[in-house]
Amino acid sequence: MPVFGENGRLLHRRGVTDSPGLYFLGLTWQHTRGSALLGWVKHDAEYIASQIRALGPTPPAETRAPERVG
Prior knowledge:
Shape: flat
Structural class: mainly alpha
Radius of gyration: 15 Å
Oligomer: single chain
Distance between the termini: 17 Å
């Protein structure tokens, strides 16, 4: 997955990557200085959860159409 930049750092915006379904939490300076601290990581978690909710409901795997290969 293309989640690393040329300098080897993760490519994300507040923990949200361009790869669907891939998120990061607890990174140093993810959004603020407290991002990697237990007392403040909840703010980043709430933001990521809101981004996931905005995608809408995802049906269980057994009811989704199979992915095409190729």
